[in-house]
């Protein structure tokens, strides 16, 4: 719904626009909406790459994944945060925080499984399949 309103008002909504909206949500501590906007930014980035409409200096999937992974972690979806961070490392092997985040997330996951035996995942990871 919001995308349609934005498109009607501004024309096309780009991956950079979705990323910036997600970043603003992240900066205000709204991780639920960060996840929604960053997923949309990933989809738009993929679409723009396929169409050849990516502008130079545009955000990259790695930029998006960093915010998406941490917000996913903040929402308690540790397994999904690990998978997203692994994808970030695949795209950017020398990322300065990703390896340490995975170690942290895995430790939390081990501790959490000790409490309840598992967890649920809400993040759509279809884009990596």
Write the layout of secondary structure elements.
Elements: H1 2-10, H2 15-27, H3 31-51, H4 61-74, H5 78-91, H6 98-116
Characteristic key phrases:
single chain; 129 residues; mainly alpha; 70% helix; globular
Can you walk me through this structure?
The protein has six helices and no strands. With 129 residues, the protein is an all-alpha fold. The chain has helices at residues 2-10, 15-27, 31-51, 61-74, 78-91, 98-116. α2 runs antiparallel to α3 (31-51).
Short description:
It contains six helices and no strands. The protein has helices at 2-10, 15-27, 31-51, 61-74, 78-91, 98-116.
Instruction: Compute the average pLDDT.
Output: 84
Q: Tell me the helix content.
A: 55-70%
Total strands: the figure is: 0
End-to-end distance, in Å?
Answer: 26 Å
Main sheet makeup: none
List SSEs in N-to-C order. Answer: HHHHHH
Number of helices: 6
Net shape: globular
> Hey, roughly how much beta strand do the residues contain?
under 5%
């Amino acid at each position: 719904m919001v995308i349609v309103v934005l498109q009607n008002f501004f024309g096309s909504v780009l991956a950079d626009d979705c990323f910036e909206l997600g970043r603003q949500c992240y900066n205000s501590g709204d991780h639920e909406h960060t996840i929604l906007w960053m997923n949309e930014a990933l989809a738009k980035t993929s679409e723009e790459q396929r169409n050849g409409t990516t502008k130079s200096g545009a955000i990259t999937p790695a930029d998006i994944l960093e915010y998406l992974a941490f917000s996913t972690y903040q929402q308690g979806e540790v397994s999904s945060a690990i998978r997203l961070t692994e994808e970030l490392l695949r795209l950017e092997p020398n990322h300065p925080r990703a390896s340490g985040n995975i170690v942290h997330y895995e430790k939390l996951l081990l501790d959490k499984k000790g409490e309840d035996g598992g967890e649920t995942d809400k993040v759509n990871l279809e884009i990596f399949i």
